[in-house]
Amino acid sequence: MQKLFYFLLLAFFSYSLLFSQQNETLSQTDLDQLKKKFYLNRKIGIDSTLFYMDKMINANNIPYKTFAYAAIEYLKTREKQQVDLVFFKDSITKYLPKIPITKKNYSILFDIHILLGNTSKRRGLTKTALNNYSKAENYALAAKDIERTIKIKGNIALIYQDMEELNEALLKSKEKSFLIETNKEKLGSKYYINKYKTALNIGAIYATLFKKDTLKRQYADSSLHYYNSVLKNNNFKQDSYYYGRIYYGIGTIYSLKKESSKANFFLEKSLHIFQNYKSHSYLYKGHYNVGVNYYMASDLKNAKSNFLKALHIKNDTLLDYNYMHINNYLSKIYLIQKKSDSANYYLNSFLKAYNKISTREKQQFKEAYKAAKEINFAKKISALNKNNNKKAFYYKITLILLIIILIFSSAFVFKNIKEKKKTKERLNDLLTRISSEEKEFTSANDIKIKDEQHQQIIKGLYKIEEKLYFLKDDFNLYNAAKKIGTNTTYLSKVIKEYKQMSFSDYTNELKINYIINRLSKDKKIRAYTTQAIGEIGGYKNAKSFTRIFKKYTGITPYQFIEKIDKEITI
User: Fold this and answer.
1) Residue 510, exposed/middle/buried by CB under 10 A (0-12, 13-18, 19+)?
2) Which end of the chain has the smaller Cβ count within 10 Å, N or C?
3) How far is CA 498 from the centre of its chain?
4) Which residue range(s) make up the domain with 85?
5) What is the tally of structural domains in the chain?
6) pTM exceeds 0.70 for this model
7) Is 300 within a domain?
């Protein structure tokens, strides 16, 4: 009987402990402390923040539980982690309506809706984001919370800008500006930073309105007014990031007004500041705008320099209009300078990017050339090529005459040929070392085959390598098996047995070896971007290509090219 009593007591204790862990009762102070952890997420790290939010979910408090769900969904979305959208939607839909709309809960309801709005904005769901921001604004107003009202009006203004509803964005920004000015004492030290951000945003909205209709000069004047209002106060250092943004804004207005010298005065001041802060985004845009202004002023040297700097700064593969414009301008500059190879290269880069965008985006791309103009541009380059070819022919004739007259030139040529041969040998040695683990099917007869079916598959793989079928878009395990006349299971087994690798690794090895071979033989290809080099082997993503290339060679594509170029120039 005593043993039964202890067993029941132990079972009750275990059940109570388990239940308490699943539905933990936390004090208001504990909940507030956990909530504060979320706002310290960049400082304490995402994993720690998610741990605290999980703890909050287990609390017997519906408002804080809902906040935790919204916080986790936002963090995972921001950090591009996998998110179970259905789970979070169901959880928030379940608990959010259960929160009593009382004065006590206005604050946390504001926080929940602003989190939901931020998450929707990051996913490109602007209307959903606006709906949540509007609800958050209502709770901030009901609570008479000035700081939160100011904050949410700014968020709503940005959403309207994303939706290109600029008048609505301007209205919200001016409401925010009015609140800031009328609550200067309440805001205290936060007054100036709020004033700066709002003036910057209003200036940017007026700049966009002016860009859409450059005949309405009042938009430009209003934009400059708000930008200059920040420059007049002395609350920020002259070399601060804040001033960099203002200088950049003023510079863009003067660019739109086609006052190139004034524009570049402010833009170059902003570039100096952005360089100190390593702000790559603004450096990229800044050098592009400075380049355009120099081009308009017919200063091709400085225009080209800034365009090339902008391309050097751009380290992603995402298309944007500035990138397309830069290639377009560079092609025109090199054409004027009668450098047909470079002109052709940048024209092709422009057209390649232009053809990738949608029809709607092409219509929005106001400065993009029409097809006829592009053809004429290409014809100019073609004519320039022919002219250069003629010049090259006369140069060769002259060179031959000089060789005949000057005997010692033959010795120089012989020496040059010998040096090239040595360089090629060194390069081949480098390529051999890099691809030391390469194992090609040189011939089906060179491998010991256990049966006729294996031999047939290996012969099929040899043909795939020989015909470069592995470069085609439709090359995959299924299509390869179909082409050879076998099934995917058997093909994978044969590759594993004779190549000691998976089909995926086999495919990547063929592609990388092909790219290495092209790079070693074609100097023009070595001048391509990583994206363009990867596309030679069928890779659509530059980062993915770089990762795979490094896996098989031990170095990045650019490091490989440097090794080749170094060998050639020695």
Assistant:
1) buried
2) N
3) 40
4) 24-266
5) 1
6) no
7) no
